[in-house]
Amino acid sequence: MVPERRGLTPSQTVGPFLHVGLPWPDGPHVVPEGTPGAVWITGTVYDGDGVPIPDAVVETWQADPEGRFDHPDDPRGSARSQVEGFRGFGRCPTDEDGRYAVHTVRPGSLPCPDGSTEAPHVNVSVLGRGLLDRVVTRIYFPGDDANHTDPVLCAVPEERRHTLIAAPDGDGFRFDIWLQGDRETVFFAL
């Protein structure tokens, strides 16, 4: 007897359970309140129609101000940050208006295997309803000379690079994330 062939099981999206299972109280704090030089990166996550998404999660991962990771996968070796309480990781659910905020310090440049350097940046993952997988992007900082030679940023068409550069916003930065549409943020395939 030959078993009957069935179709593929439909994929599931990554939401809306995110607000139940992923947040934790200190999630948006990559560094503690009161850390010298700390900034808030704030923004809104939008769908393709420009409607804020109230049930997404924004995760960040970054190097410390010296461009180091306290992680065994850092090719230079794991190094504890000189910034007290630096975690390198943040997670913030969006609120009812699609807004998120991450409290952090500006990262340092990272060395590339070929001897060049990557400009200071924050890696970002977004999870939310309607997404079958997370989407991944980067936040670069305005006015940083290293942006002109960063190998990842330079690989993005020039007319789209602005979607990866945060805007100054008071004492911090604003970085809106557009999941689709004419203003879509550049996302990377990993």
From TrEMBL:
Gene Ontology molecular function terms on file: ferric iron binding; protocatechuate 3,4-dioxygenase activity
Compositionally biased intervals (Basic and acidic residues): 65-77
Pfam families: Dioxygenase_C (PF00775)
Family of this protein: Belongs to the intradiol ring-cleavage dioxygenase family.
Disordered as annotated region, ranges: 65-90
Keywords per UniProt: Dioxygenase, Oxidoreductase
Protein name: Protocatechuate 3,4-dioxygenase subunit alpha
KW Oxidoreductase (keyword) present: yes
InterPro entries: Intradiol_dOase_C, Intradiol_dOase_core, Intradiol_RC_Dioxygenase, Protocat_dOase_a
Intradiol ring-cleavage dioxygenases domain span: 39-177
PANTHER family: DIOXYGENASE, PUTATIVE (AFU_ORTHOLOGUE AFUA_2G02910)-RELATED (PTHR33711), PROTOCATECHUATE 3,4-DIOXYGENASE ALPHA CHAIN (PTHR33711:SF9)
Enzyme Commission no: 1.13.11.3
Top enzyme category: oxidoreductase
